[in-house]
Design a protein that fits this description.
The chain is of the alpha+beta class. The chain has helices at 23-36, 39-44, 47-58, 99-103, 130-138, 140-197, 219-227, 237-256, 258-265, 269-283, 321-332, 354-366, and strands spanning 64-65, 71-76, 87-96, 110-112, 119-128, 293-296, 300-305, 308-317, 336-348, 371-375, 384-390, 393-406.
Length: 411
Amino acid sequence: MEASLPLTHLPLWDPIWRNSTEYASRLKIALARARDVPDDTLARTPVDAVADVIVNECAAASVTVDHEGLWVETLETPSHGGKEQLVRLNLCVMVDGASSALMSRGVLSGADIEGDKPAKCFSTIAEATNEDIADAMADAARFGEYIEEFQGLLREAAAAANEEVQHHRAEMRAQVMTAIGARARRVRAVLATADALGIPVAPRSMEQRIPLQPRGVTVAQLDAAVVAGAQEWHLAEQIAEDITVTIMSFTAALERLVRSASKLLREDEETIRDFLLFILNANYQGAATGETFLGRGKTDILLRWRDRDAFIGECKIWHGPSKFVEAVDQLLGYTIWRDTRIALILFIRDRADTSAVVDSAGACLDQHSRLLQVITPDEPTRRRDYLLHAAGDQKRVIRLSLLPVVLPQPF
């Protein structure tokens, strides 16, 4: 899903901590990240968005100083040769981001750094005896002026450090954009031409292919099964599963063919349904018109047998949980057999976080009042199955297959 860009990588090698600058090493890693971006991501995602992801991951972070949290610290230093022990007086602040860029400004004396956590930075303002430190601290007004002056210098140093960080960040972004820009134009040109001609740019796996040779399955076979003693309301499981897989192949094709999908989405669910009806009727032979897949209403795809709905497909575009629940309730209210299969094909478009949409649809079904069982999914982003009872009759069971389809935006 495209909730976030699929740029999953290992942590930065030879760990570059958050508080470190190491601009040259960071740039080297960022350019390696740019080379690793999949072609599919470059085809579907704006180049500047991809560059931003890489830069945010690899560039040094801006410096943030917790001025409000400033505190005073006194530390005893080791005594040598019988001399009186001295005390070090520090002003301390916590600094997040590339604190090393701040340390080079001469305002701070040192830092205590622990991994990627914010650094404790300090300025040693005195190293003297206990009496001298006590006398200095007794003049609160003068000490307050010193703190105010210190924080002013610290703010100036932080601004200079951030100017340095932003300069290197902009330089990294420009080089990353150069690295991926030309490749993105090439990838998009190839995909656009291939899409226009209806040809793939790589071999398709078996589960992604929509079979072209018609199946030999007909409802007449069910009639023969009834004559042989089978229960008439039972649609053979292998037939229903085969239909569902064919629908998934169609939706996978839509995800691949961006321009074709975009044309469909300029219409509505009915247009998408008509294309799917064409695919299904090309794949399954019917002995008579009543045994083929039909359209009913605006979005339904039906396989009718003996005046009942043996298989139901429903095309819906995601418009939020409430509309989704309405669609589910409508499906559960159909006149069905005791066992009926339903494919709810959910098209998702114009969404920043498609994973959240799929999870929201799943949560609606998980919490539905007629839910009997959730079937553990193998691929939750492609298919989720549920057993529910039909409206008004708990003995009639519906197996609903939720088939999310994330439709990419045209480039």
